[in-house]
Amino acid sequence: MNTETLVKPRAATTGAVSSWSRDSHPPSPLDRIAMRVGLALLLWGRHRYRARPDREAQWELIAHRNRLERERAAREQAWLAAAHELPRR
């Protein structure tokens, strides 16, 4: 078994520079602030240009739910009426 690969990892390509090497430095506080501001701007931009809701589709959905509720209530009333007409012991 070759133990050399277990001790030191090899780069996928020859001469590739890894950002996670031992010689890399952590980002400066100014870089961290710049990254946070950039991320905040990206998120703010996505939030601002949200698609507007389609009012007609919302009304159709509300009408559909109301119709389903009326149908369910009618089925329940029919079931209760049928159960009431059953002969009792």
Could you characterize the architecture of this molecule?
This protein is about 60% helix and about 0% strand. With about 90 residues, the protein is an all-alpha fold. The model has no long low-confidence stretch (mean pLDDT about 80).
Short recap of the structure:
By secondary structure, the protein is mostly helical. It is 61% helix and 0% strand.
Task: Show the helix and strand layout.
Elements: H1 4-7, H2 29-48, H3 55-84
Span between termini: 85 Å
Specify the number of helices.
3
Low-confidence stretches: none
Q: Mean of residue pLDDT?
A: 81
Rg, nearest Å: 33 Å
Strand portion, in percent? under 5%
Helix/strand class:
mainly alpha
Query: How helical, in percent, are the residues?
Result: 55-70%
The count of DSSP E runs of length 2 or more, i.e. the number of strands, is: 0
Q: Work out the oligomeric state of the chains in this entry.
A: single chain
General shape: elongated
Largest beta-sheet characterization: none
- Would you list the SSEs in sequence order as H and E? HHH
Describe the structure using short key phrases.
89 residues; mainly alpha
